[in-house]
Amino acid sequence: MNDREWLHNAVYAKRDSYAALNDEIHGYAETSFEEYRSAAALIRVLKEEGFEVREGLADMPTCFTGTAGSGRPVIGILGEFDALDGLSQEAGVPVRKPVKEGAPGHGCGHCCLGTASLAAAAAVRDYLEAHHLSGTVVYFGCPAEEGAGSKQFMARAGLFDDVDFVYTWHPSTTNDVSADCTTAIMGANFEFTGISAHAGGSPWLGRSALDAAELMNVGCNYLREHIRDGQRIHYAYSDAGGSAPNVVPDHVKIKYEVRARTVAEVKKLFERVTKVARGAAMMTETEVRIDLTMAFSDFRNNSVLAETASACLEEIGAPAWDEEDYALARAFLNSYEPVQKEAIIKELAETWGQENLAGILEKPLHSGVKPYDSSKAEYEGGSTDVGDVSYAAPTCEIHTAAACMGNIGHTWQMAAQAGSRIGHKGLMTAAEAMALACIRMAADPEKIRLAKEETLKRNGGKYSCPLPDSVMPPVGKY
User: Fold this and answer.
1) Which architecture characterizes domain 184-295 according to CATH?
2) Which of 50, 153, 202, 265 maximizes the CB count within 10 A of its CB?
3) Residue 44: enclosing H or E segment and its boundaries?
4) In the CATH scheme, what is the code of domain 3-182+299-459?
5) Where are the domains of the chain?
6) How confident is the model at residue 36 (pLDDT cuts 50, 70, 90)?
7) How distant, in Å, are the alpha carbons of 162, 213, 225, 288, 294 from that of 278?
């Protein structure tokens, strides 16, 4: 029996348990830094598997590690388990049906992510033990990826310093290891303080915090004309200063996030936004307090790990879809609003060819594996705190299909599929692919050396956190 067959058997022997764990976390659906039951479920299984667990790491109650084995290499596997607000949805149901209206839901599939990563960690540990091989496996329980993030705080605390390489995955619509990059991001709360007054009787005595925030928005809108392609500026009010129009508001809090291709670029863009905020405060004779809350480094796959993982994924193949899976995927694809579905179909035709569109719409689940191609790297619009791990240690993220082709992330459709038979099959394939990639990398010290060289070249010799030490994880505040 070769390593692939051995790991396949190890992973699939526990498939019912892993499906149950996924569905348990899907049912909890807890948001950033509130994932107490989800973390407890993963910790329970880690302990049952014989992993030594450390909890409450890097000043985050739901951050933990599970470690097994001994010696080198030290193999890291990342798990996430947080949900998104407002996306509550019954598992496997292709019509909008919240479990609880307005409650959170797993619209990015992190219930699958955390479960598959645990399955991979257990399989790697079992393989090393069964074959009397040296190696330590560390499962990293990472909260709050959808919020302020955790991995930058974990990296700053040195949790990845002794790790030789790291694998993770993310639920997707395709099976691949992508060469694409994600952007760096910085976010802050801008809190304006003014003076309240009667808006009709004595408005000249007031200093409007709302005016300041609005002027900041106007200034940032003008700034958008003068930033690089691919850079982004987002904002949302978290406190608009009250609802009485006849009162000059003396307090307003607004959240801004900016994105750029690299950490260096995003810091410069953030500084420009802060200048706009200070200018708005000067114009309105208000005060502004700027609290930096989050920052992620940009992410790209380590090419050595990516080539290994891609070969492993091609060897394993796509999830074994059947007619029931295809029927469910069609139902989800048809559940999108007409304007969304029109855009989805257009993109599918452009990506896969008009001649293949009819077949895709009939069986909208990816049944192949796209090979890794480092020459086709493009920047995506999103960001992830996995970027900080990639600056701290060689890191690679695998994608496996856990949703219908054309699926839109951060939707109730994704939440439903994450708890469905489609999600179950996707996470099992991901677990097997990560486990095989870990074993293949562990058996090749030269590849590990080259992977580390690539990371050191990228980070300039060591990891540097984009957040100052004074910024702590905003547990209970984000």
Assistant:
1) 2-Layer Sandwich (3.30)
2) 153
3) helix 36-48
4) 3.40.630.10
5) 3-182+299-459, 184-295
6) very high
7) 42, 10, 20, 7, 20
